[in-house]
Structure to design on (93 residues):
């Protein structure tokens, strides 16, 4: 299982979340298996998104235009960092 961790700072969380939710079907059709969203306890506009993907290549293909800045940021994203990880181990605690 591949994972993508996206760290963003947004102008307004609710505005960003509304835009993010519009792309559920697009993410699913391209291999996303689920999303967990975290917000900073002191700065609600600092958001971490952890996405599970069927394959790392699918995730990279989905995010490549954003990494290369071929598509503009939407939903009021001010800053964005994207990291790709392969899951290697799970433990019980």
């Amino acid at each position: 299982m591949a994972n993508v961790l996206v760290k963003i700072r947004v102008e307004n969380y609710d505005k960003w979340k509304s835009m993010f939710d519009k792309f559920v079907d697009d993410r699913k059709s391209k291999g996303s298996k689920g999303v967990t969203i975290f917000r900073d306890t002191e700065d609600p506009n600092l958001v971490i998104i952890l996405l599970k993907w069927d394959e790392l290549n699918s995730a990279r293909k989905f995010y490549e235009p954003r990494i290369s800045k071929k598509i503009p940021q939407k939903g009021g994203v001010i800053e964005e960092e994207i990291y790709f990880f392969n899951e290697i181990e799970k433990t019980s605690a």
The longest strand covers residues 77-86. The chain has one domain: 2-86.
